[in-house]
Specification:
Blueprint (H helix, E strand, L loop, with lengths): L4 E8 L15 H15 L5 H6 L2 E2 L2 E8 L8 E10 L4 E9 L5 E9 L1 E3 L5 E2 L4 H11 L1
Antiparallel strand pairs: 1-4, 2-7, 3-6, 4-5, 5-6, 7-8
């Protein structure tokens, strides 16, 4: 499936993310996904606060993680993300790799659903403002 939008960040694993063996605690990988996802969406002018101001939030409802190799303190990691769907849900695929060697260390996929901030109800189609922003990228 060809991605609608892609993004990439490079970060260094900080000391406060690792355990006594210098290995990244598994929960921090989700934070790295969030940082990459935010950077990708900002490329098209979309930000969490902006969408909240429009009356829509996007909670993650599914998060699949595949740990391939451990990330270690000081390691430089490239986090690539690809937006695969946005019409009824946001589906993003991620690949984490060592920024120096290219070795794969982690794969993931998240699904987010639109929720009306006023009612707390699920929205079963993409809010028009998001669709317009993404359609601008596609044209």
């Amino acid at each position: 499936m060809k991605p609608i939008l892609t993004g990439e960040i490079v970060l260094e694993v900080p000391f406060h993310d690792v355990d006594a063996m210098g290995v990244t605690w598994h929960g921090h990988y989700v934070k790295y996904l969030e940082i990459a996802r935010t950077a990708m969406m900002r490329k098209v002018g979309l930000d969490w606060q902006q969408m909240k101001d429009w009356g829509v939030i996007w909670p993650v409802v599914t998060c699949n993680l595949k740990y391939i190799r451990p990330l270690k303190y000081g390691q430089s990691v490239r986090v690539q993300c690809s937006l695969l769907e946005y019409e009824q849900r946001i589906r993003i695929r991620y690949l984490l790799s060592d920024a120096l060697t290219g070795e794969r260390v982690h794969r993931a996929e998240t699904i987010q659903l639109a929720v009306d901030t006023a009612t707390g109800e699920l929205l079963f189609e993409c809010p028009r403002v998001l669709a317009q922003a993404l359609e601008g990228v596609l044209s």
